[in-house]
Amino acid sequence: MEKWVNCPIDRVVVNEQKIRLVAFFVFLLVLFNFMQPNIFLSLFITVDFYCRAFLEGKFSVLSSIAGKLEKYDWIGIKNVDRAPKRFAAMIGFFMSLLLVITVLLNSNIFINSISFVFISFAFLEFAFGFCAGCYLYHFLQYFKSNYAKDL
User: Fold this and answer.
1) How many CB atoms lie within 10 A of CB 144?
2) Could you give the CA distance from residue 113 to residue 67 in angstroms, rounded to a whole number?
3) Closest CA to 97 of 26, 36, 49, 141
4) What is the CB-side half-sphere exposure of residue 13 using CA atoms within 13 A?
5) Burial, 89: exposed, middle or buried (Cβ in 10 Å; 0-12, 13-18, 19+)?
6) What is the secondary structure of 34-76 as a DSSP string?
């Protein structure tokens, strides 16, 4: 199934195991936020995603913690291209921004919906290494090349 996935490539290599550890942290934080919505926790998640998506991981607290744990060699190393993971972080940033807005509006149905999607994607990434952003990127590229020209 991986052969048909067309991910953005930027030829920068990152450790997928470290990214999976960050996904575990995101999973826990969003789960806590789901149980007890908190604007500060939502903002923290949003800022951290922004740092990973747009600042190449600089200033990301979760990435820094995972980097420190990575040095102990217990998570292993599996090098992958950074671009699909960055694309997924961009999606995570926009989802977390929606989470902040829904927490501010105190809209429980939307908080629960966004949190469920967030928790599911983070779980798939940390537990199975399934990058939903890579598949979404492929779908968008397919749609763009086959259907968008007709619009």
Assistant:
1) 10
2) 31
3) 49
4) 4
5) buried
6) HHS--HHHHHHHHHHHHHHHHSTTTT-HHHHHHHHHHTTTSS-
Whole-model pTM? 0.85
d(CA 87, CA 12): 13
Helices and strands (DSSP H and E) totals, the chain: 6, 2
Residue 106 DSSP one-character state: T
- Tell me the pLDDT of the chain (151 aa) as tens digits: 444 455 556 678 888 889 999 999 999 999 999 999 999 999 999 999 999 999 988 899 999 999 888 877 777 788 887 878 888 899 999 999 999 999 999 999 999 999 999 999 999 999 998 988 877 876 777 777 777 665 5
Neighbours of 136 (CB within 10 A): 15
